Amino acid sequence: MLNSGKALKVSIYLSEGSTYHGFAADAAMLDFLFYRGVSGATVIRGVAGFGADRHLHSASFVEISDKLPIKVEFIESESKVEELLGKLQEMAGTGLIEVQETRVIKPAQSSKVRPELQPSIAKIEGKAKLMRIYIGEDDRWNDKPLYKALVEAMRANDLAGATVYRGFVGFGAHRRVHRDKPFHLSHDASIMISVVDTEEKLNQFLPVLEQMVQEGLIVLSDVEVIKYTHRPNANQEPVHEA
After folding, report:
1. In the chain, N or C: fewer CB atoms in 10 Å?
2. What is the reported pTM?
3. Rg (CA), the chain
4. If one looks up domain 127-224 in CATH, what number appears?
């Protein structure tokens, strides 16, 4: 939580249309900051500007540019900013990041407590853990489907990947049978989310699950990763080694 006193204001300048792993860079940053427990962040869309490419971009009634400047801004403690800067630099790509010293007179207050997430660590190699999360389709978190919020949180925490499965018949602790019937789809079907990553990384994510999953089942199993690969991002420039 952000407290009164010395803090840092971070401003990240991007071009509209910038992407990170196939997603809009500003939206990806907002997700990352939210699920890292940052007190608050704002995305501002400019109406005119130019950057390192020296191209002037502007919006008018006649022509709408798709390369307008975008600014992502947030205020946090120095220790929190230092924890996040490495990942933000990666996500910003060719964008500019500015950090200024500031002073918080009165921090914003909220009745909702956001989980503090741990920094991401190394990729999977060999031994790993399979996590399965069993919840209901109607379960919600912050006014959105819980399964969707969990996947967003996992992506923001750089977990290797997650898959959501919707059951067509099953029951849980309440002993109620949920099933899809002909011409009638249940709105409270069983949902299972599976994710594979290192034991340490999943253990770091467990406090977030405890905050978000109020009713459900979470299990961990030993697995061994045989192969974990992904296709290169079509929007990502190739890396040339010397």
Report:
1. C
2. 0.51
3. 21
4. 3.30.70.120
